Amino acid sequence: MKNPKQYDLEDRTLEFARRVRVIVKKLSRTIANIEDGKQVVRSSGSVGANYIEANESLSKKDFVMRIKICRKEAKESRYWLRLIDISGKGEHEEERKALIQEASELMNIFGSILRKSE
After folding, report:
1. Helices 9-25 and 31-55 sit at what angle, rounded to 10 degrees?
2. CA 12/CA 100 separation, integer angstroms
3. Distance of CA 91 to the CA centre of its chain
4. Where are the domains of the chain?
5. Please, which pLDDT band fits residue 88 given cuts at 50, 70 and 90?
6. What is the Cα–Cα distance from 42 to 36, expressed in whole angstroms?
């Protein structure tokens, strides 16, 4: 049985993408939020999708490239999360901060995987 504190990275990236989608649904429908929301939905989903691809890679070089993409997409997700406007919705600010923290942690995890792989 897995340690409850131990995370499967595929599950963790999936949960990150799901949480991003939940907060995007709650955003006010301004032109900027619609466009920024689309971007953060894409990049957050891409983190996990590329991690799955990395686990199915055909070579070490392919694995390293996919992990670099994971790190890049996590960094991009953090950027879009910082940019979206949730003004006037304090309860959403806490979730946004938690998502920004998770994106940063994912960046660090993928960076560590890269250092150990290269």
Report:
1. 170
2. 14
3. 20
4. 9-117
5. low
6. 10
Question: For residue 89, what pLDDT band results from cuts at 50, 70 and 90?
Answer: low
Q: What percentage of the chain reaches a pLDDT higher than 70? A: 92
Dmax (CA) for the chain in angstroms is 49
Contacts of 112 (CB under 8 A, 6+ apart): none
Terminal-to-terminal C-alpha distance of the chain: 31
Q: Which CATH superfamily includes the segment(s) 9-117?
A: 23S rRNA-intervening sequence (1.20.1440.60)
Sign of CA dihedral 102, 95, 20, 37: negative
3-state secondary structure of 65: helix
Gap between the Cα atoms of 9 and 50, Å rounded: 12
Q: Report d(CA 24, CA 61) in Å as an integer.
A: 35
